């Protein structure tokens, strides 16, 4: 029974902590149907980085509750209370570590140069695209968040016919 409770607590912590992402291939619901600013740029460099995981407290709370319930079921009333407290503390520490690990993301730091010569650095989770020095890209900014995408091929407009 206590293994089931621990499993449920860990699963809850992981599910709740995995809700946020900085993946450039995932658009937040609030950003749908909003006009974004687009700037042309050229990649100067790109390097892998790790975005540290978050500790919102959800993992610690879920782990603490799970540890307290599992610990309190050990032995008699007195032993159960003591082990319950120890289980709550240990569960909170473990839950916090699980949340931090689950929300950690492999990312890229991309340094670009805009057409006006200014340089910008953007960190975003690894997506489907790779970026190399010299690649033409666009910076798409929506709601204060910027993501880097490969620049789409520009097709010249067909000349207007006088007909």
Automatic annotation (TrEMBL):
Provide the leader sequence positions.
1-20
Name all Glycine zipper domain ranges.
Answer: 58-100
Cite the InterPro entries for this sequence: Gly-zipper
**Which UniProt keywords are given for this protein, alphabetically ordered?**
Signal
Q: Which residues form a coiled coil?
A: none
Q: Which residues cross the membrane?
A: none
Q: What is this protein called?
A: Glycine zipper 2TM domain-containing protein
Annotated organism of origin: Pelomonas caseinilytica
């Amino acid at each position: 029974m206590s293994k089931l409770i621990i499993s449920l607590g860990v699963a809850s912590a992981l599910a709740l902590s995995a809700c946020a992402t900085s993946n450039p291939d995932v658009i937040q619901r609030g950003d749908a149907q909003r006009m974004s600013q687009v700037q042309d740029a050229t990649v100067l460099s790109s390097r892998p980085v790790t975005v540290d995981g978050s500790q919102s407290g959800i993992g610690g709370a879920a782990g603490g509750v799970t540890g307290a319930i599992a610990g309190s079921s050990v032995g008699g009333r007195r032993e159960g209370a003591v082990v319950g407290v120890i289980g709550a503390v240990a569960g909170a520490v473990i839950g916090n570590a699980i949340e931090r690990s689950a929300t950690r993301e492999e990312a890229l730091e991309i340094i670009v140069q805009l057409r006006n010569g200014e340089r910008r650095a953007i960190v975003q989770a690894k997506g489907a695209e790779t970026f190399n020095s010299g690649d033409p890209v666009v910076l798409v900014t929506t709601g204060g968040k910027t993501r880097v995408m490969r620049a789409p091929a520009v097709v010249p407009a067909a000349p207007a016919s006088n007909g």
